[in-house]
């Protein structure tokens, strides 16, 4: 069986976020690392600060963490879930 190599995917407006099916199951991650955007969001949701994350992973800068957060926010831009009132 012949293997097809897929190139890294770069996201417009995000210099440090890439995705590559050969790394981290293709999840968006910080370029040059195996640290996914999802992992960074989990750390933030768990109460870590941006500075704590950067200190825990010296390969990351605070700018990387903020870019991951901005990337995640952009993925939900213009998306909404219609809500119904309980009385309906």
Q: Which characteristics define this entry?
A:
3-stranded antiparallel β-sheet; alpha+beta; 88 residues; Arc Repressor Mutant, subunit A; single chain; 12% strand
Describe the protein's architecture and organization:
The chain has 88 residues and is of the alpha+beta class. It has a single domain, classed as Winged helix-like DNA-binding domain superfamily/Winged helix DNA-binding domain (Arc Repressor Mutant, subunit A), CATH 1.10.10.10. It has a three-stranded antiparallel sheet. Strand 1 and strand 2 form a beta hairpin. Helix 1 packs across helix 3 and helix 2 crosses helix 3.
Shape: globular
The largest pleated sheet is described as: 3 strands, antiparallel
Let me know the CATH homologous superfamily: Winged helix-like DNA-binding domain superfamily/Winged helix DNA-binding domain
Distance between the termini: 55 Å
Under CATH, the topology is which? Answer: Arc Repressor Mutant, subunit A
């Amino acid at each position: 069986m012949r293997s097809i190599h897929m190139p890294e995917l770069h996201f417009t407006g995000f210099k440090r976020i890439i995705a590559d099916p050969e790394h981290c199951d293709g999840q968006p991650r910080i370029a040059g690392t195996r640290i996914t955007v999802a992992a960074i969001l989990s750390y933030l949701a768990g109460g870590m600060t941006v500075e704590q994350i950067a200190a825990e992973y010296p390969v990351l800068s605070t700018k990387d963490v903020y870019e991951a957060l901005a990337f995640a926010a952009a993925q939900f831009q213009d998306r909404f879930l219609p809500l119904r009132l309980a009385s309906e």
